[in-house]
Every structure is written in C-alpha cells, then in structure tokens.
Design brief:
343 residues; Rossmann fold; 6-stranded mixed beta sheet; 5-stranded parallel beta sheet; 9 helices; 16 strands; elongated
Length: 343
C-alpha cells in the first residue's frame, strides 16, 4: 500500500533582502546601556559595513514582557530582518525548571516562531549574558551561586536553549569570563557589579560584530567608546579568539540548516489508518485546512482518514493581517515517510 499526500502551505509574507544587514536587538539594560546598538552600528560603519539597526529594549524586562507586547510582533514583521538577537533577563535562565518551562522557554519559543513565520531566513541568536561580580542569591532556598557557578550555569542553559530552538548563541558571557581570568585589572562592571560599564558595553558590541560579520575588528582610531586603545584591542582580540576560533561551537550551524526533516509550520504523524496534523504557528494567525479544494477545518489539529491507494491534495492556509505576497511549499508523503520538499 502506498499513500501519496501532497501538502501545500500558503502563507502571507514579504521577502526582500539587500546588501545592508538589517539587525534587531530585543532585550533590556544589558543590551541598551551605553547605547550599545547605536554604537554597534557606528562600529560597523567604521569597518565599512552597511547596517540598519533597531532595538526593542526596556530595563529589567524578560522574554515574557517582549513576547506579550504587541509592538514586538509589529516590529518583527516591519522589516526583512537578517539577524535578530534575543536577550532575556540577566538571571532568567537560572529560574527553577518549572518556571523555565512556563515562562522563559514558552515565551522565547513564541517569539522565535513568529520570527520564522515572517522571515524564515533570519538568523536568530541568543545573548549569553554574564555572571554578577559577587554572584547571586537564588530564591526558594536554592542557596548562593558565586560568579563562576553563575556564569557556568548561564552558559550551559543558553547552549541548551540554542539546541532546543535551533538558534545560535552570542558568547558575551564566555568572553567576559575569560577576560576576568586573563586580565584581572580590566574592569567590565559598572558600580552596581551587575551591569556593564563602558568597556563591558564595547565587549558586547564587539561580540555581535564578530558573530554577524565573521571577521575581527580592525579599526581602532574612531571607536565610538571613550576607551584606551590598549583596552579596546585587548577586548577585541579576546572576542576574536572566542567567536572565530573553530574549537568553540556557538551553534551557528543552525543558521544554515534546511528543512529536510519537517516544516516549521506543522507537525504530522500516521496512526493506524489516519494522518494526524497539527499546525505549528503563533496564536495570532488564522489557519484553514483544505482537502481536495474544500475547507475541512479551521482548527490547529485535524485528523484525516486514509484509504488504501488513495491520493489527495491537502492545503494549509495561514493568514495574518493584510500582507499580500504569497509563497508555497510542497511536501510529499509515501507510506508514512516524508520525502524531500520542493518549492
């Protein structure tokens, strides 16, 4: 028995990429202090790169705040973003496992799903923050973490998030840790021992430059930070050594993966004589399943009875707002195994 099922997915989006790199930062004070996104843009310009940079930042906010803010989604769909950086609250990955599932991971996935819906080719990275100078007291009697313990847990959590969401990690915290060890007289913290000072902000900007352009900084005569050139070079050299050294894996391979296993927009499985489909799109989108041209459901989940040697066309239509450009993808199923999709 063979089952050939052709699934077309229609969705509304716009695709237009130019040489200018469109970059969106979503985060809080660990991103915005010392006007880092603006200074990153100036650094890129000094290095001969063309960028358009926008930020959605507010002090003290976490992923839940951004994921439940309508402006986040308006901004995501406003430009064909090449890179989007997600920075959570500085201690957010240290939440207990239940809170992580209900808040951090849930809302992180919600934003990532929306990004991939609008701009499937956008490169997403998580901002690995740094441990506090004197560590942190955890709630619920979980005790105190010193700097090293806090940084190690942040690193482990962000890499696990990256593997789960299939995104990259900007290793700001790793670079910070190595500089603390190798250059102990170099101050990266502001007076509160949490936030970045001017040098720390330059470290952040330098990390994103290396991640995005895959090349180290070369121009130090016109850096938009008031720093001694020796300090700037020390930070830039360490950033290069951590970001561009192939011995480290910051999950950039996820940027170049193709959908050979499944689509982003739905999951499926065969169960006895039925095909079970589950649309995987953000809540604000309306969907419609069509079987041989007739609408059969507007729900996320649908069950299709299968008969021996039957062929039929199944379409999933996803719509949001008033965008009018259309793209289609096709999947072919044979005997429960999905074959390679074609555009």
């Amino acid at each position: 028995m063979k089952r050939f099922i052709y699934i077309l997915i229609f969705f509304w989006s716009v695709s237009a990429f130019g040489q200018t790199q469109n970059i969106l930062f979503i985060g809080n004070s660990f991103t915005m202090n010392f006007e880092m996104p603006k200074k990153f843009s100036q650094i890129a310009l000094n290095e001969g790169k063309s960028v358009y940079v926008k930020q959605l930042t507010k002090g003290g906010m976490d992923w839940q705040y951004h994921a439940t803010n309508p402006n986040t989604y308006q901004t995501i769909k406003s430009e064909p973003w090449d890179y989007i950086i997600l920075q959570g609250k500085s201690f957010e990955p240290l939440y207990d496992s239940l809170t992580l599932e209900k808040t951090t991971k849930r809302y992180g996935k919600q934003m990532i799903d929306s990004i991939r819906y609008y701009w499937p080719d956008a490169k997403i990275m998580l901002f690995m923050t740094w441990g506090y100078a004197e560590g942190i007291d955890l709630d619920n009697d979980r005790g105190h973490l010193d700097y090293t313990e806090m940084q190690n847990q942040l690193k482990q959590k962000y890499l696990s998030f990256a593997d789960e969401f299939k995104v990259a990690v900007a290793p700001v915290g790793e670079i910070w840790q190595q500089l603390r060890k190798e250059s102990p007289t170099l101050s990266l913290y502001d007076q509160d021992n949490y936030h970045q000072n001017r040098a720390g902000s330059f470290l952040v900007a330098s990390t994103f430059y290396n991640m995005i352009f895959e090349t180290p900084l070369e121009q130090f005569s016109n850096i938009p930070y008031i720093l001694d050139e020796k300090i700037s070079r020390t930070i830039a050299d360490k950033t290069r050594d951590v970001v561009l050294n192939p011995k480290y894996d910051w999950r950039k391979n996820y940027w170049f993966m193709t959908d050979e296993v499944d689509f982003n927009y739905f999951d499926f499985k065969f169960k006895k004589d039925s095909l079970l489909l589950d649309a995987n799109v953000p809540e604000e989108y309306s969907i419609k399943w069509k079987l041989d041209g007739k609408t059969i459901s507007k729900e996320d989940k649908v069950v299709i009875p299968l008969n021996d040697d039957e062929e039929f066309d199944l379409k999933l239509i996803i719509k949001e707002g008033i965008l009018r450009s259309r793209r289609t993808e096709e999947a072919v199923f044979e005997g429960g195994k999905k074959l390679t999709p074609t555009d």
